[in-house]
Amino acid sequence: MAVPSERQGAVAGLIATMQGVALVVTPVVSTALYGISRSLPFACLAALLCVLAVFFVLPSFLVARRDWH
Predict the structure, then answer these.
(1) In contact, 28 and 35? CB cutoff 8 Å
(2) In the chain, fewer beta carbons within 10 Å around the N or the C end?
(3) Is 60 exposed, middle or buried (CB count within 10 Å of its CB: 0-12, 13-18, 19+)?
């Protein structure tokens, strides 16, 4: 999906902001989870990746399947 030229600056700013937030929040959350259990950060990451895979892959799969018929 293309971003209109008048919105590109806002989108670039949002992307940069999210990268900064991730650099601050991720170590804090991971350390807290590690304090509870050594495997908990990895389990949470695996669960998050599964949710994101369903969120991003499933819609494109459904569109491709609809176009197939």
Answers:
(1) no
(2) N
(3) exposed
Tokens standing for 53?
A: 């895979």
DSSP annotation of 38: T
pLDDT band with cut points at 50, 70 and 90 for residue 69? low
**Residues 19, 39: Cα–Cα separation, whole Å:** 25
What CA–CA distance (Å, rounded) separates 11 from 17?
10
Per-residue pLDDT at 68 exceeds 80: no
Residue that is written with structure tokens 């937030």 in the block: 21
d(CA 59, CA 36): 35
